[in-house]
Amino acid sequence: MGKQDFRGRLSFSWPATATGAPLNVGDLNYAPLFPFGYGLKLGERRIAAPLSEDPGIDLSSLDTPVGPLFDAGRAIAPRVVQIDGANDSPQTVSGAADNGAISTRPIDRDRQEDAREIVWIGRGRGTLLIANPRVVDWSKAGPLVLGIAVRVDAAPAGPVSVEFKCGPGCGGKIDVTKALTLLGGRGWQRLDIPLGCMAGGDLSKVSAPFVMTTSAALKLAISSIEIRSIKGRATCP
Fold first, then answer.
1. Which end is more exposed in the chain, N or C (fewer Cβ atoms within 10 Å of the end residue's Cβ)?
2. d(CA 221, CA 227)
3. pLDDT tens-digit profile of 142-188?
C-alpha cells in the first residue's frame, strides 16, 4: 500500500434518485446518496450499507400516452431530452449542449428558461429527441396527435423529418419541411402531427415519442410537446 492518502472529494451532491430534481447543500430535505465533499481516507474502515436500486421514478406513467412530453424547458420525467449526430450516440442534456451538428440551450418564453432553442448548423445529421427509459405500448390508445409549440426563427434549408422511434431500424416518419417553412418568422405557433401520418412505425414498442432530424441548417425554439387524443378529423401537415 502506498504512503499517499486519497485526496479526491465529490465536487457535487450525488443524488439518491433519478428524478433530476435540484440537489444542493442547504436545501430543505437535503438527502443525497453521497453528499458534497464525500471521500475516503486510507485509515477509514467503514462498511457501507446496501445501496438502494429504487430510481425514485414512477414508470407507470409511460404507459398512458396522453399528456405532456416536454414542458417548462425540460422533458417530463422519466423521459429525457437528448441530441444526437451522425455517430448515433445520443447525449442527454439539461442545460446548453453542442455536438457539432446540433446545439441547444434554455431560453425564456413566458418565464425563465421555460423553452429551448435548437440550432442545426447544416454540417451533417443532427437529431433532437425525447427518449423513454423503456419501450412502451401505445397501440391500443386510439388515434393520437403529437402537438408541438414551436417558433421557427430560420426556415429549414433542406428536408426535416419528425418521427417516433420503436427500436433499432424502426420508426414512423413524416416530412415536415413544408410545415416548418410556412411557420417561419410567424412567432410562436402550434404544429399538430397525427401519429397515423407517420408511416412505417410500430406503436406497440415506442422508445422515443418525438424525434426531429435534419442535415440542413435550421433554427427554432420549442416550449412544449404533448400527445393528445384525436377528436374529429385529423389532417396530416
1. N
2. 18
3. 899 999 999 999 999 999 999 999 999 999 999 999 999 999 999 99
Tell me, yes or no, whether 46 and 156 share the same domain.
Answer: no
Total domain count for the chain? 2
DSSP 181: H
Structural domain boundaries, residue 152: 59-229
- What stretches in the chain show pLDDT beneath 70? 1-2, 19-21, 57-62
For 29, residues 6+ apart whose C-beta sits below 8 A from its C-beta are: none
Side-chain-side CA neighbours of 215 within 13 Å: the count stands at: 3
- Give DSSP secondary structure letters for 71-95: ETTEEPTT-EEEEE-TT---EE-SS
Cell of 227: 400527445
Q: Is residue 234 part of a domain?
A: no
CA distance 55 to 170: 28
Picking from 203, 38, 88, the residue whose alpha carbon sits closest to that of residue 136 is: 203
pTM for the model stands at 0.78
- Tell me, yes or no, whether 33 and 77 share the same domain: no
Q: Cβ(137)–Cβ(119) under 8 Å?
A: no
